[in-house]
């Protein structure tokens, strides 16, 4: 299993600093935002930032890298919001290509599944990615309102016949009402696990089915022992696991200790 945290890119080293922090923590993967997740404003890569990140990435044996798209992106929107969303996502895909990141993760948004699918493919076209470029993954959501992606069958329909894949979030699935073993069986049957390269491993503050997207530290939330069983399922052995748990020295130490104990004593 390759695992890591969602890292900050703040600081003098920028994105390269995320790889440095991953090395210090002994991580085998990393997730970042390529720009502010709550602004439409893009962020130019600093001089030397790409080279610095790629060099550290290579020194760490490749360091699987995920870029998470802006929270403002709504692929299911039309009009101006839809256009802004496509261009913002295309910018993240282009940055992923430049940095050698393997994946870009985005929430589908609220509205029409057909529009979300079309806009996702349009973003890929604008980024001018080849088949060997970063893979765009639609993330399952906690649901609520018109938010897409809470149901696995909807995600399966959205990616059918496309280059798109899925990023599976344990907290979101739990919040949407799934038991994780049931969800994993559903992913295998409806989506195909070869199209689910990235797992967001998070506990949940809210109860099952509460539709609350609020992550907790491993084994300090409401999911319980099924989270461990899910993480250790042999079908997920080759996946990239990203912890989007609360960050801080104590929190990081706790989450790494829990995960490493699981791996040491499966």
Automatic annotation (TrEMBL):
Q: Which residues form the signal peptide?
A: none
UniProt domain Xylose isomerase-like TIM barrel: residue ranges:
21-261
Coiled coil region boundaries: none
Is Zinc set as a keyword in this record?
A: yes
Give the required cofactors: Zn(2+)
Enzyme Commission designation: 3.1.21.2
Enumerate the residues binding Zn(2+) 2: 139, 169, 200, 244
* Binding residues for Zn(2+) 1: 68, 107, 139
Q: Which residues bind Zn(2+) 3?
A: 172, 213, 215
Cofactor binding note from Swiss-Prot or TrEMBL: Binds 3 Zn(2+) ions.
Answer whether the UniProt record assigns the keyword Kinase to this protein.
no
Superkingdom field: Bacteria
Q: Which reactions are catalysed by this chain?
A: Endonucleolytic cleavage to 5'-phosphooligonucleotide end-products
TM region positions = none
**A GO BP annotation:** base-excision repair
Which one Pfam family would you cite for this protein?
Answer: AP_endonuc_2
- Say what the protein does: Endonuclease IV plays a role in DNA repair. It cleaves phosphodiester bonds at apurinic or apyrimidinic (AP) sites, generating a 3'-hydroxyl group and a 5'-terminal sugar phosphate.
Family of this protein: Belongs to the AP endonuclease 2 family.
From the Swiss-Prot or TrEMBL record, give the protein name. Probable endonuclease 4
């Amino acid at each position: 299993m390759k695992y890591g945290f969602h890292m900050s890119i703040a600081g003098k080293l920028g994105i390269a600093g995320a790889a440095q922090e991953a090395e210090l923590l002994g991580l085998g993967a990393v997730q970042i935002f390529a720009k502010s997740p709550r602004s439409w404003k893009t962020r130019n890569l600093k001089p030397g930032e790409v080279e610095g990140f790629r060099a550290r990435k290579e020194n760490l044996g490749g360091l699987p890298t995920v870029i998470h798209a802006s929270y403002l992106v709504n692929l299911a929107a039309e009009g101006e919001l839809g256009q802004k969303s496509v261009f913002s996502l295309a910018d993240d895909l282009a940055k992923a290509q430049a940095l050698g990141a393997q994946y870009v993760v985005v929430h589908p948004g609220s509205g029409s599944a057909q529009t979300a699918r079309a806009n996702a493919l349009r973003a890929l076209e604008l980024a001018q990615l080849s088949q060997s470029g970063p893979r765009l993954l639609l993330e399952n959501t906690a649901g609520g309102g018109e938010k897409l992606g809470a149901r696995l069958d909807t995600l399966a329909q959205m990616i059918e016949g496309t280059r798109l894949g899925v990023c599976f979030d344990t907290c979101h699935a739990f919040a949407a009402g799934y038991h994780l073993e049931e969800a994993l069986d559903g992913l295998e049957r409806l989506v195909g696990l070869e199209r689910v390269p990235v797992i967001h491993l998070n506990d949940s503050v809210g109860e099952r089915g509460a539709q609350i997207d609020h992550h907790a530290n491993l084994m300090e939330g409401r999911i319980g022992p099924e989270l461990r069983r899910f993480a250790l399922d042999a079908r997920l052995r080759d996946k990239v696991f990203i912890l989007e748990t609360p960050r801080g020295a104590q929190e990081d130490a706790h989450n790494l200790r829990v995960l490493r104990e699981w791996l040491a004593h499966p």
